[in-house]
Amino acid sequence: MQFTFCPLFSGSSGNAVYVRAGDTRLLIDAGLSGRTISEGLASIGVLPETLSGILVTHEHSDHIKGVGILSRKYHVPIYANDRTWQAMERSLGNIAPGSRRVFESGETFYIGNAGIMPYRISHDAAEPVGYRVYYGGHSVATATDIGVFTKKTLEALSGTDIVLLESNHDIDMLHANDHYSAQLKTRILGRYGHLSNEACGEALLQLYQTGVRHAVLGHLSHENNTPELAMSTVCGVLRAHGLELSEDIQVDMAWRDHVGGVYEII
After folding, report:
1. Rounded to whole angstroms, how far apart are CA atoms 60 and 53?
2. First-to-last C-alpha distance (Å) of the chain
3. Rounded Cα–Cα distance for residues 10 and 13 (Å)
4. Which of the four, 16, 62, 179, 215, has the lowest number of CB atoms within 10 Å?
5. In sequence order, which residues have a C-beta less than 8 Å from that of residue 185 and are 6 or more positions away?
6. Strand 129-135 to strand 3-9: parallel, antiparallel, or no bridges (unpaired)?
7. What's the mean per-residue pLDDT of the chain?
């Protein structure tokens, strides 16, 4: 049966990831307009009315902008922990009672064919989580909006077939950005902010030791990063530790303004 992973859009301006596990079709976040996400799904041959659920990582607008409209228009259930529901409910608008699903962070649950493990992450939100989705002896995961890559995060992602990993900013570009206040820079660089390119490379090196062989870099900052810089920095860390790209590990890029790669997990 089909196990598909596609970062539809990933960046500081909006995020949505599509996962298909057999007959179960999921969105992880919907942080762009309902129309944009629907068009993104259509471009890979998916009708939004066939979605089995929307999994929400946290309540920031670049992760929930389209959640409410997609749920109302296509009758799609929304899954989030209780604290995230409290933080985002007003922003979503009217949600049908039957579409409001609550889980406990750290406890695996099931949607159709898919096993869902929401693991806690370090970010400045009510109760942010990443997701690992299991199907047919394989798994895929999202790991963005992470201020620090902890031992628990490493354990949650250990051995994943493919992971969307945050490579948010270049530290020098961030420091030089005159548009950002000192307070905002401190937030981004802090324990509850975002992973830098260098930190992403170090995290991926740790994940490689657990058996991870494929990563997609995501959630890049529009002002404080470029795809070329993120890729060169992360791959530079891996090469410095003796890894050969494409042979030992595959690293791809997710995009903010167009649909990313469609990966079939075998």
Report:
1. 19
2. 9
3. 8
4. 179
5. 174, 175, 177
6. unpaired
7. 97
